[in-house]
Amino acid sequence: MSAGTGVRLPPHNFEAEQALLGALMLNNRTYDKVADFLRPDHFADPGHGRIYDSCAKLFDIGKSATPVTLASYLEKDPLVIDLGGSEYLAQLAGSVISTLNVSDYGQLIFDLHLRREGILICEDAIDEFYTGTRDAPASKTYERMEHRAAQAMTAVMGDDRTKSAGDSYSIALTQIEASRQARLDGRMVGVTTGLIDLDKATGGLRRSDLIILAGRPSQGKTGLALNIAVNAAKAGNAVLFASLEMSHEQLTLRTIAAESGVPSNLAEQGDVTDWQFDRILSARDGISGLPLYIDDTCNMNPQGLKTRARRIKRKHGLNMIVVDYLQLMHSVGKSENRTQEVSELTRSLKGIARELDVPVLVLSQLSRAVESRDDKRPMLSDLRESGSIEQDADVVMFIYREQYYLERAEPGRKPSQSQEKHNDAMAVWNSQLADVKNKAEVIIAKQRRGPVGTKYLHFDPTLVKFSNLAQKGF
User: Fold this and answer.
1) For residue 443, what are the β-bridge partners?
2) Would you give per-residue pLDDT tens digits along the chain (474 residues)?
3) Is there a contact between 319 and 232 (Cβ–Cβ < 8 Å)?
């Protein structure tokens, strides 16, 4: 208590909280400026914290936060009702002059939260100093103060990633020794793909790497990614498969087909023999115990992906994330154009890989420029229309199946062509088709930690399954 001033209120700035919330409703993209450091409990007014939390949850599921959507979301929340309910939400959005200062508002709210935390730490310490006993000496109070203060400073500064040259060298040497020992023990350095040649070329999918697997439609991107996810899970790695295109039922059917050898269309229609059904049951038993988690949320954004990944990591551990696919993902709010938005997405996904220290395998479509060339093998230039994918990625791989294109290029007989020449053309075509039947190429076009080149896989189109080519007698 201060003489002549009465009780001092804890530091707060309700106007800054109102301005920030109004700006979020006016331009949802501004959430990205504060999402990394501002939490609902940082707001001095708990009702404001509830509104902020609801905004984050709406963004998490790919929806917009407006006075209308928030009003229906919070219509029975007593904290918001006390503030004025839907009318208050409309006032917040209507009073916004500019959204440019959102980051400043967020920092101010956060700073005031830290001040309140500091006051609580000191008040608790004062109480302990007054009431301390032999079993609770002053030294313990100092230790608790130091620990709580350190926690508060960690929230401000984040984890200190600044390293001296000596520290960096020691860390690098430790990693080299661990990798060498893994090789000697016959273990993978990174997360295994279950595909021998691909593992040899990459050393497995490395922690904190953003890996792009790109291709044109019908080349098997989802099938290959799902095969890799299952193989990694079989090796004991916890995998989150975020599917923005296919439902978890469809993916599960594909997995059962690949593991049982029974085509998914037959299984889905129930057109299976007793022997095939037994194979399906056996495959199900083998899959159900794997640490593979499928999330088929539509319109997922990077913030929602990070929230889900953190939850799984906390509960089960996490070794790998798969995203199917990049062009179906959206950032929070609106971007000036799709190229800029994709650039923001790849940077965010790379940030998730680093923050959670796991490889993030992201599927991506390629531009139609591929179809206009005689040689339809993808190149890095085919990614240019998709923003900074090549720049942000640690590894870029393309999936290419020449069989797909050859089957659609069967030579027809021209009116002026003799039957003999047509037969010769058909013979050449059949020979070329036989050479590439059930073969797939994985073209490693970029790899920061290793060589580039092409690896070959076996592809079973009836099961949408990729496997080691050598095992199939090629």
Assistant:
1) 398, 454
2) 344 456 678 899 999 999 999 999 998 888 888 887 889 999 999 999 999 999 988 887 778 899 999 998 888 899 999 999 999 999 999 888 788 889 899 999 999 998 998 888 888 888 888 887 666 677 777 777 777 776 666 555 555 556 666 666 666 676 667 666 766 666 667 899 999 999 989 889 999 999 999 998 889 899 999 999 999 999 999 999 999 888 888 888 888 888 888 887 787 777 778 888 888 888 888 888 889 999 888 777 887 888 888 888 888 889 999 998 888 887 765 566 677 778 888 888 998 999 889 999 999 988 888 888 888 889 888 886 565 787 888 999 999 998 888 888 778 888 888 888 888 888 888 888 888 888 999 999 999 888 899 999 999 888 888 998 865 443
3) yes
How many angstroms separate the CA atoms of 123 and 362, rounded? 49
* All structural domains of the chain: 1-162 (1.10.860.10), 194-400+438-472 (3.40.50.300)
CA 469, 471, 474 angle in degrees (round to 5)?
55
Structure tokens at 66: 């407006």
- Residue 241 DSSP label: E
CA distance 297 to 309: 13
> Which three-class secondary structure state does DSSP give residue 396?
strand
Read off the tokens for 181.
């020992």
* Structure token pair of residue 265: 């269309």
Residues 283 and 277: beta-carbon distance below 8 Å: no
Nearest CA to 440 out of 467, 468, 459, 453 is that of 459
Q: Diameter of the chain by CA atoms? A: 110
From CA 178, how far away is CA 188, in angstroms rounded? Answer: 11
User: What residues contact residue 182 under an 8 Å CB cut-off, 6+ apart?
Assistant: 188, 189
Neighbours of 470 (CB within 10 A): 11
222: left (phi over 0), alpha (psi -120 to 50) or beta: alpha
C-alpha to C-alpha distance for 307 and 160, rounded to whole angstroms: 22
